[in-house]
C-alpha cells in the first residue's frame, strides 16, 4: 500500500485503504498481521548511534501511523449452483446483476457451510442430520470421502458461483491486487466482466494467490467480482478429514480462507520475517527477510526502510523488470541487528512471549511503494536427533519436552476467533505446550493466538489420501501431471505464511510415510525457496528412513484405541510405549462426553442404549464403533446398566488412560523426547479422540491429562511400582518431599513411605522410592502420592485405583490401532464403595471479565469419596458454564480429607445468571451451593 512516511515530509501517494474502507458496507478493513497486544521494546540495541555504526540507517526515519493495509471482502456475498444458471462469468461479474434469489453468505465459507448458516439444512451436528444433506449418502458411513469421486447426483459435482460487489475509491494510479488465502479447489475468476485468472492457474487448496487486477479494476467506481469454484476430485491435493469425522458433501469446496484487496506502487513487499540466532540470552543476531516483487516492465531502484521495535535500518535494492527478489538484511552488514539483552520469545512456562513489530517500507523517489508488517518474536528453535533418530527440540538453547495434542479445525471450516482463544487457554490449562496440525491449516487468527500464548505449533500435510498416494495408490489414486507443481507451490505458500510465526515449531511434509525421492526433492526445493529456517521432517512415523534426509525424528506405531495404563510402561517391543523416542500421535480411542454434552447432539430416544447414532459420532474404519472401549469399560468396572452408569465408568477409564499416557512419557524423559496426544479436539460433536469435547466441556480425560502434566509432578509406574518425580520447568527444583501411601477398598492404610530432600533437574525423571509388595490388599486398592516443597506446600498429588488382578496384553497381535487386552484389571469392588456426602462451600472472587470461584470440598465420611466432580452452572438446574477450568477435578478424597479447588470462567459465558456449584461423584450424593 502506498502511503506517506510522515504527512509533514512526504505527500500521500495513494489513498489509503483505511480511508475507503468506511465506504464499503460489504467489506471490513483491518490489519490481520498485527494482532492485539502491546508492541515489544528491544532494550539497548547495538548500533543505533549512527556515529559508531556502519549502518546506512536514517535516524530521522519513522514510519507513519499505519492504517489498515488489507481491505477484506467478507460481507455481501451471494452463492449459487451453476446448474440451470446459463450465465457466464463475464455477465455475472457486471455491476447490478441480480442475486436476490441466491444464498447470501459471508466469506470465508464453504458452500455447504453457507447453506447451513442460511438455514437450508438442520443442524448437521445433531443426530444423523449430516446424512440428510444431499450428496452425503453418496459415501458410506465411516469412510474417507477423499477416496471417492462425487456421483453425478451430487449437487456439488458441478461448479458453484461466489459473487460480490464493492466500491473501489480512486487510488492515484496505484496497482490493485486481489488476494485469495485459500480456494478449494480450483476457480475461474472474473472482475468487472474481465477474466483475471483461470482454473489452470487457480488450483490447490493450500496455495495463496495475489492477482494483479489493475487492468480490470475500476477505481472510483463500483466493482463486481464473480468466482466459479470447482470441488476437488479424488486425485486433487485437497483437505481430508480422514477417519476423524464425516466430510461435507461438497468436500469443503469454496472460499475457505480470506479474500482481500491491497494497492501498491511498482514494488510489492510480502512475507516479512526475522531469523534469529540466540547464542545466549544476552545477545541475539537478527536477519530480516522478505519477498520483493517488481510488477512493472522497467527496473526499479528503491530503499527498504524498516523498523524492528525501536531499531531502524535501511538498505538500497534494485529489481529488474518483473523480478521477484528475496530480501535479506543481515547483522553482518547492519550491526544494529545485533541486539544486547534481547526480549526473547519463549514457550509458556519457560519465559515471556515477547512480540515485536516489524515494518518494512519500499521507498521509491520519496514515496512508499508498499508496506509490509509482521508481529515477530526473537527466538531460535533447534532440533537434534537423540540416539541418531528421535527429535529433541531447544528454544533459545533451552531443551523443551514436547507435550501436545492433534488439532483439527471445524468440520465445515467455520472459524470462530473467540473459540480460538478459548481452546488455546484449555491447552495451557492441561499443561500442554504444543499442538500438531495435520493438514486443514486453519486461519491466521489461530496462529496469532499461539504466538501470544506461547503454544508451539507443529504443522504439515495430511495422511491417508492423495497427499500420500504412494502408500495405497489403488485406493488413493495417483498424482496427475498437474499435482507436482501444485504440491510444490502449496508447500511454499504455507511455509512463507508460517515462517514469521514465533510459535512455529517445524513442518512435516510427510505424515504416515515419507515421499519418494522425486517428490521429496520438490518439497525440499520449496523449503529452500521459502527460506524456511525451522526443522523439516520427512514423515511423522519411523518407517524406512528417507534416503535423502534420513530418520524423521518420530515414531508412530499407535495405539489409537483402548489399551490399559500398564501398556505404556510394559512395552518392550518397540511399539507405542515410553521405552523411548518422540511419538507423533498416540491415543486411547473413545472419549465419551459427560451426559450434559451427549444430550446436546443425541436425540432423546437415542441416548441409551448405545446405537447407530452413537456410532455415527465415532470415526471411520476400526474406529466406527465403541466395541473395544465398552469391552474394556465393562471388563474393568462391571456391566454398564444405564446411561449414567456408562458415562461414569467412561470418565474413570479416560482419566486413568490419559494420565498414564502422558505420565509414562514424562517418566521416560531422557529416553523420550515428546508426545502428541491423538487428539486434542474434534471438528464436530464426537465420542472419539479428544481432550475436551466439542462444547469445550472438560471431563475425565481432560483432568487426567492435566494431572499428568503438572510442571513438577510425582508419578507411579504401573509396571515396576516405582515412584518418580519429574520437572518440566526452566530450572532444577530442590528440597522436595515425596510421600507414597497404599489403602485398601475400605480406606485402611496398608503402607506409607516418604523420601525427603529430593532435587529434580530438567533432563530426566528422578527416582524417589519403590512401593514393595503389600500384604492384605483387597482386589481393588489405592495408591496415593503427594509431593511437597520445602515450605510443606503441596506441589502435586496423585491418586491411583489399582487391582491385584493385572491387565494382560497380547503383544503378538499388536497392530497399528493397538493391541488386544486378554485380561482386564478387576476394579469392580469400586461398586461397593459406601455412599458419601462431601460438604461443599464456595466463595466468589473477582467481578471483572474473568470470574473465579474458590470451592472447598471435605469428605466427612468413613469411606473414600471417589472421582468427585464439581462444575459451575448458570443457576440451580441450569447448563454448565462453558468453558470453565478447575485447578483440579475428578478428585478422590480420603476420610476426613479437605481440598480447595479454584474454578475460573468468563463472566460473559455466565451471562446474568447466578453461579451455582454442583458436586457429583462415583459414590457421592449430588449437592450444590451458591457462593
Present the secondary structure layout.
Layout (H helix, E strand, L loop, with lengths): L16 H5 L6 E2 L41 E2 L4 E5 L7 H4 L10 E3 L3 E2 H8 L41 E9 L6 E6 L2 E2 L1 E6 L2 E4 L11 E4 L8 E10 L23 E2 L3 E6 L2 E14 L2 E12 L5 E9 L2 E9 L4 E6 L8 E3 L15 E9 L2 E10 L4 E6 L3 E6 L2 E3 L1 E6 L9 H13 L4 E5 L5 H10 L2 E5 L12 H4 L4 H18 L5 E5 L8 H13 L6 E2 L29 H4 L10 E6 L8 H7 L10 H5 L10 H11 L5 H25 L4 E6 L22 H9 L3 E5 L5 E6 L5 E12 L4 E12 L5 E5 L9 E9 L5 E10 L4 E2 L11 E3 L15 E7 L4 E9 L6 E10 L9 E3 L4 E3 L4 E9 H4 L4 E6 L6 E3 L2
Parallel strand pairs: 26-27, 26-32, 27-28, 28-29, 29-30, 31-32
Antiparallel strand pairs: 1-2, 2-14, 3-4, 3-6, 5-13, 6-12, 7-11, 7-14, 8-13, 9-10, 9-12, 15-16, 16-19, 16-20, 17-18, 17-21, 21-22, 23-24, 24-25, 33-34, 34-37, 35-36, 35-38, 38-39, 40-41, 42-43, 43-47, 44-46, 44-48, 45-47, 48-49
Tell me the CATH superfamily of the largest domain.
Answer: Immunoglobulins
Q: Which strand order does the major sheet show?
A: 30-29-28-27-26-32-31
Q: What is the CA-atom radius of gyration, in angstroms?
A: 29 Å
**Overall average residue pLDDT:** 92
Helix content percent band: 10-25%
Per DSSP E runs of 2 or more residues, the count of β-strands stands at 49
The CATH topology of the largest domain is given as Immunoglobulin-like
The CATH architecture of the largest domain comes to Sandwich
What is the helix tally? 15
**CATH class wording of the largest domain:** Mainly Beta
Strand content: 25-35%
The number of domains: 4
Q: Outline, from the CA principal axes?
A: globular
Helix and strand content put the structural class at: alpha+beta
The termini sit apart by: 54 Å
Low-confidence stretches: 1-41, 43-68
Biggest sheet layout:
7 strands, parallel
Signal peptide: 1-21
Domain Glycoside hydrolase family 2 immunoglobulin-like beta-sandwich: 269-379
InterPro entries: Beta-gal/glucu_dom_sf, Beta-mannosidase-like_N2, EBDG/EBM, Galactose-bd-like_sf, GH, Ig-like_fold, Ig-like_GH2, Ig_GlcNase
Domain Exo-beta-D-glucosaminidase Ig-fold: 816-923
Amino acid at each position: 500500500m502506498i502511503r506517506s512516511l510522515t504527512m509533514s515530509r512526504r505527500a500521500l501517494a495513494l489513498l489509503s485503504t483505511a480511508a475507503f474502507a468506511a465506504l464499503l458496507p460489504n467489506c471490513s478493513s483491518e490489519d490481520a498481521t498485527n494482532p492485539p497486544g502491546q508492541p515489544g521494546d528491544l532494550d539497548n540495541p547495538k548500533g543505533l548511534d549512527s556515529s559508531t555504526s556502519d549502518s546506512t540507517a536514517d535516524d530521522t526515519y519513522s514510519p507513519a501511523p499505519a492504517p489498515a493495509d488489507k481491505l477484506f471482502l467478507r460481507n455481501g456475498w451471494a452463492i449459487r449452483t451453476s446448474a440451470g444458471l446459463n450465465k457466464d462469468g463475464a455477465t455475472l461479474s457486471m455491476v447490478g446483476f441480480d442475486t436476490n434469489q441466491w444464498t447470501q453468505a459471508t466469506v470465508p465459507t464453504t458452500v455447504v457451510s453457507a447453506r447451513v448458516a442460511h438455514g437450508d439444512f438442520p443442524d448437521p451436528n445433531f443426530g444423523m442430520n449430516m446424512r440428510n444433506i444431499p450428496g452425503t449418502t453418496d459415501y458410506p458411513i465411516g469412510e474417507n470421502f477423499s477416496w471417492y469421486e462425487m456421483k453425478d447426483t451430487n449437487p456439488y459435482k458441478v461448479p458453484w458461483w461466489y459473487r460480490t460487489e464493492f466500491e473501489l475509491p480512486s487510488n492515484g494510479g496505484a496497482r490493485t491486487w486481489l488476494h485469495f488465502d485459500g480456494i478449494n479447489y480450483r476457480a475461474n475468476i472474473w472482475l468487472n466482466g474481465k477474466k483475471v485468472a483461470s482454473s489452470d492457474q487457480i488450483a490447490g487448496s493450500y496455495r495463496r494467490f495475489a492477482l494483479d487486477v489493475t487492468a480490470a479494476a475500476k477505481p472510483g467506481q463500483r466493482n463486481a467480482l464473480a468466482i466459479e469454484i470447482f470441488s476437488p476430485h479424488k486425485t486433487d491435493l485437497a483437505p481430508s478429514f480422514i477417519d476423524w469425522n464425516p466430510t461435507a458433501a461438497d468436500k469443503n469446496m469454496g472460499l475457505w480462507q480470506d479474500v482481500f484487496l491491497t494497492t501498491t506502487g511498482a514494488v510489492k513487499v510480502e512475507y516479512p520475517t526475522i531469523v534469529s540466532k540466540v547464542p545466549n540470552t544476552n545477545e541475539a543476531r537478527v536477519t530480516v527477510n522478505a519477498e520483493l516483487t517488481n510488477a512493472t516492465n522497467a527496473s526499479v531502484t528503491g530503499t527498504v526502510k524498516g523498523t524492528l521495535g525501536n531499531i531502524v535500518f535501511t538498505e538500497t535494492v534494485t529489481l529488474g523488470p518483473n523480478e521477484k527478489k528475496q530480501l535479506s538484511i543481515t547483522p553482518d552488514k547492519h550491526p544494529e541487528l545485533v541486539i544486547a539483552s534481547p526480549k526473547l520469545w519463549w514457550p509458556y512456562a519457560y519465559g515471556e512471549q515477547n512480540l515485536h513489530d516489524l515494518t518494512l517500507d519500499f521507498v521509491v523517489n520519496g514515496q512508499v511503494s508498499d508496506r509490509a508488517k509482521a508481529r515477530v518474536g526473537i527466538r531460535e528453535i533447534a532440533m537434534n536427533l537423540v540416539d541418531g533418530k528421535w527429535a529433541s527440540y531447544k528454544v533459545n538453547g533451552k531443551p523443551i519436552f514436547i507435550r501436545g495434542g492433534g488439532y483439527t479445525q471445524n468440520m465445515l471450516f467455520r472459524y470462530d476467533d473467540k473459540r480460538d482463544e478459548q481452546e488455546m487457554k484449555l491447552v495451557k490449562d492441561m499443561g500442554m505446550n504444543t499442538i500438531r496440525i495435520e493438514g486443514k491449516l486453519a486461519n491466521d487468527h489461530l496462529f496469532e493466538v499461539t504466538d501470544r500464548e506461547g503454544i508451539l505449533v507443529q504443522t504439515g500435510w495430511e495422511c491417508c489420501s492423495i497427499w500420500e498416494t504412494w502408500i495405497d495408490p489403488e485406493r488413493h489414486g495417483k498424482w496427475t501431471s498437474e499435482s507436482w507443481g501444485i504440491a510444490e507451490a502449496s508447500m511454499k505458500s504455507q511455509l512463507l505464511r508460517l515462517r514469521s510465526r514465533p510459535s512455529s515449531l517445524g513442518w512435516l511434509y510427510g505424515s504416515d510415510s515419507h515421499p519418494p525421492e522425486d517428490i521429496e526433492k520438490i518439497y525440499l526445493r520449496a523449503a529452500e525457496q521459502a527460506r524456511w529456517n525451522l526443522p523439516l521432517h520427512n514423515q511423522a512415523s519411523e518407517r524406512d528412513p528417507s534416503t535423502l534426509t534420513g530418520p524423521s525424528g518420530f515414531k508412530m506405531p499407535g495405539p489409537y484405541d483402548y489399551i490399559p495404563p500398564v501398556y505404556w510402561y510394559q512395552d518392550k517391543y518397540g511399539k507405542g510405549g515410553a521405552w523411548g523416542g518422540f511419538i507423533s500421535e498416540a491415543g486411547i480411542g473413545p472419549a465419551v462426553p459427560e451426559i450434559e454434552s451427549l444430550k446436546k447432539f443425541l436425540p432423546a430416544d437415542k441416548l441409551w442404549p448405545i446405537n447407530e447414532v452413537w456410532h455415527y459420532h465415532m470415526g471411520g474404519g476400526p474406529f466406527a464403533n465403541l466395541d473395544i472401549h465398552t469391552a474394556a469399560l465393562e471388563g474393568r468396572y462391571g456391566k454398564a446398566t444405564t446411561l449414567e452408569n456408562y458415562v461414569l465408568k467412561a470418565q474413570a477409564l479416560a482419566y486413568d488412560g490419559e494420565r498414564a499416557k502422558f505420565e509414562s512419557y514424562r517418566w521416560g524423559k531422557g529416553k523420550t523426547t515428546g508426545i502428541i496426544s491423538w487428539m486434542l479436539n474434534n471438528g464436530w460433536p464426537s465420542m472419539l479422540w479428544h481432550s475436551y469435547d466439542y462444547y469445550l466441556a472438560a471431563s475425565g480425560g481432560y483432568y487426567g491429562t492435566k494431572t499428568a502434566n503438572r510442571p513438577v509432578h510425582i508419578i507411579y509406574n504401573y509396571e515396576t511400582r516405582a515412584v518418580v518425580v519429574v520437572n518440566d520447568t526452566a530450572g532444577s527444583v530442590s528440597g522436595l518431599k515425596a510421600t507414597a501411601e497404599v489403602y485398601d477398598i475400605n480406606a485402611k492404610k496398608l503402607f506409607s513411605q516418604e523420601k525427603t530432600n529430593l532435587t529434580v533437574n530438567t533432563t530426566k525423571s528422578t527416582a524417589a522410592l519403590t512401593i514393595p509388595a503389600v500384604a492384605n490388599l483387597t482386589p481393588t486398592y489405592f495408591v496415593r502420592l503427594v509431593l511437597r516443597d520445602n515450605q510443606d506446600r503441596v506441589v502435586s498429588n496423585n491418586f491411583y485405583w489399582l487391582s491385584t488382578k493385572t491387565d494382560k496384553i497380547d503383544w503378538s497381535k499388536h497392530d497399528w490401532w493397538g493391541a488386544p487386552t486378554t485380561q482386564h484389571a478387576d476394579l469392580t469392588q469400586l461398586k461397593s464403595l459406601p455412599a458419601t456426602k462431601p460438604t461443599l462451600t464456595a466463595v466468589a472472587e473477582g467481578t471483572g471479565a474473568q470470574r473465579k470461584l474458590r470451592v472447598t470440598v471435605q469428605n466427612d465420611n468413613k469411606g473414600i469419596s471417589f472421582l468427585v466432580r464439581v462444575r459451575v452452572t448458570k443457576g440451580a438446574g441450569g447448563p454448565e458454564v462453558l468453558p470453565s477450568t478447575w485447578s483440579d477435578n475428578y478428585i478422590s478424597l480420603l476420610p476426613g480429607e479437605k481440598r480447595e479447588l479454584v474454578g475460573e470462567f468468563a463472566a460473559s459465558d455466565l451471562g446474568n445468571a447466578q453461579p451455582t456449584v454442583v458436586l457429583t461423584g462415583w459414590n457421592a450424593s449430588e449437592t450444590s451451593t451458591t457462593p
